[in-house]
Specification:
The complex is a heterodimer.
Chain A (H helix, E strand, L loop, with lengths): L5 H10 L2 H13 L3 H20 L15 H9 L8 H18 L3 E3 L9 H13 L3 H21 L4 H4 L5 H15 L4 H15 L15 H20 L8 H14 L16 H12 L2
Helix pairs in contact in A: 1-10, 2-7, 3-7, 4-5, 5-6, 5-11, 6-9, 6-11, 7-9, 9-10, 9-11, 10-11, 10-12
Chain B lengths: L2 H4 L3 E3 L3 H18 L6 E7 H10 L1 H9 L12 H7 L3 E6 L8 E8 L5 E10 L2 E7 L2 E5 L5 E7 L4 H11 L4 E8 L5 E8 L5 H8 L4 E7 L6
Parallel strand pairs in B: 2-3
Antiparallel strand pairs in B: 2-4, 4-5, 5-6, 6-7, 8-10, 8-11, 9-10
Helix pairs in contact in B: 2-4, 4-5
Classes of the chains: A mainly alpha, B alpha+beta.
């Protein structure tokens, strides 16, 4: 049930548009009509757009570590002095803003998780604006993103506690790469290879949140995930292919997650969480309980 | 996982298990109490809920759920203030609940009428929850399907009473589980159905000697 492999997407996508392939699969899996499915996905896209409006530069997270950076990046992106250029600057700003909104208890759309909720909006919202795409186009792209996430959830994991941050930001980045590649007119093969290239780029990323909170380093990793989604999509659109078949890349992701020490899987015991600074914040937070 | 387990839920951050799941736990307790906003809530946080709950807004999320909010309600962040306006008192404590899932809360509610409810529930990830205790009895249900909860004396015939009513109402049973504290003591039936149980059916059950309480919790639609 549902989309089981990227190989299936690549094969089915040769004869039929990927969106139609995934829509049919969703209708069978959940027992709904195409209209009901599309309406639900459209509602989700509206929620992503609303979530963007919820951002405020003044809000701060429970620990005080998160807040205000999205606005800084947005202002800098508009200054004309950025290294990456104004467009990528706006992508980075969107990623940070959404991550900050999540940390500050604003409404967001988990994609695939709350901690990685900034990647997809960051690659999709500025792209829609620049390319003047319709909301219907964006909704179709969400199906592509969702199907890639579905395959990863089935063959590996989308939970930081199980597979580390590669399972969260890595999956979000693969979903974003696939969605962008599809919107830019890439073939089903290019779409799946874009996802594979993104996963390989983030393979091994650990989940090491300070004090166990979805704050540091989670928010900034959304910016990194968005950048890798864009670079992976462009590589695939240029005709570059992952040497390792996409499904095998996901198997590698699973293996890496399984081998990852438990201190690096959302326990707040390793990585940046274990630094003296991380420990200090952790102590402060536990004092509030 | 289907497409909408990957994309969504639409929720107030920062964590689907510690925030969205906590709202659902509070909301489930409110619905099981069945008398609107309670007068008093005593809440025990266990495991990771106790350790990282404050930073994740788990405390505010539970109160928001008790006030009837859903996981995407932006007032979750200020639920303590809203509870004060709504005249709902609450007390938090921390205690290790051995053997329970790491993300578990126990709620003891008192309604304005004096009716009480105790419920323990765990947040399983992705916003999904499981009720594991109700009024002192071990149970197991998620609230994903319409759920009928019947509290009765442990004696012959009550399963027949309930299933007959459901059959007469053309309500199909998805799952049926029975729990009791000791032979002849208190029992609970948890019945998940494919559609809503009509109110007259519930009233019918309440007239039967030995049936002490009937609660129906409909499945919640997500945005």
């Amino acid at each position: 049930m549902g989309i089981e492999s990227l190989a299936y997407l690549m094969e089915a996508g040769e004869k039929e548009d990927l969106f139609d392939v995934i829509l049919k699969s969703d209708c069978v899996e959940r027992g709904v009509t195409p209209g009901e499915s599309i309406l639900k996905m459209t509602t989700l896209y509206s929620a992503i757009r609303r979530a963007r409006e919820g951002y405020s530069p003044e809000m701060r997270s429970a620990s005080g570590m998160i807040g205000g950076d999205g606005a800084k990046m947005r202002e800098y992106a508009a200054s004309g002095k950025t290294i990456c250029g104004e467009y990528i600057g706006s992508v980075l700003a969107q990623a940070i803003e959404m991550g900050e909104s999540n940390a500050c208890m604003k409404c967001i759309v988990a994609a695939p998780t709350a901690g990685s909720c900034g990647v997809l909006p960051a690659v999709l919202l500025p792209y829609q604006q620049r390319e003047n795409l319709s909301d219907a186009d964006m909704v179709h792209a969400l199906y592509i993103a969702g199907a890639v996430g579905q395959v990863i959830a089935k063959k590996a994991s989308i939970a930081g506690a199980a597979g580390g941050c590669q399972a969260e930001i890595g999956t979000a980045s693969a979903m974003g790469a696939a969605a962008l590649c599809y919107l830019a007119g890439g073939s089903a093969q290019a779409v799946c290879h874009a996802a594979a290239i993104a996963i390989k780029s983030l393979l091994g990323l650990v989940c090491d949140p300070i004090a166990g909170l979805v704050e540091v380093p989670c928010v900034k990793r959304n910016a990194a995930g968005a950048m890798i989604a864009m670079s992976s999509a462009d590589l695939a659109l240029a005709g570059v292919r992952s040497a390792v078949p996409p499904d095998e890349v996901i198997m590698a992701m699973r293996e890496v997650g399984d081998k990852m020490d438990v201190s690096l899987r959302e326990t707040g015991l390793g990585g940046v969480a274990a630094t003296p600074f991380g420990q200090k914040i952790s102590k402060q937070m536990s004092g509030q309980l | 996982m289907n497409l909408f387990d990957i994309l969504g839920p639409v929720m107030v951050g920062p964590s689907s298990s510690h925030t969205a799941g906590a709202v659902r736990i509070g909301r489930m307790a409110r619905r099981l109490l069945g008398e609107g906003t309670p007068r008093l809530a005593r809440i025990t946080l266990s495991g990771s809920f106790a350790a990282t709950g404050h930073g994740h807004g788990t405390d505010r999320a539970l109160i928001a759920g008790l006030l009837g909010m859903k996981p995407d309600d932006e007032r979750i962040a200020v639920s303590f203030e809203i509870a004060q306006q709504a005249d709902m008192g609450f007390v938090f404590s921390h205690e290790n609940l051995p053997g329970e899932h790491p993300n578990t809360a126990r709620l003891e509610l008192t309604a304005h009428s004096g009716k009480t409810l105790s419920m323990t529930a765990s947040s399983l990830g992705g916003g999904r929850i499981m009720v594991v205790e109700m009024n002192g009895l071990r149970v197991s249900f998620s609230g994903d399907l319409p759920t009928l909860i019947v509290q009765n004396r442990d004696q012959p015939g009550h399963v027949r009473d309930v299933t007959t009513m459901l059959a007469m109402s053309s309500v199909n049973i998805a799952t049926l589980n029975l729990y009791r504290d000791y032979p002849g003591g208190n029992a609970v039936m948890i019945i998940e159905t494919d559609k809503a149980v009509p109110e007259e059916g519930i009233r019918l059950l309440l007239d039967i000697a030995g049936i002490n309480g009937v609660t129906f919790v409909g499945a919640e639609k997500e945005g």
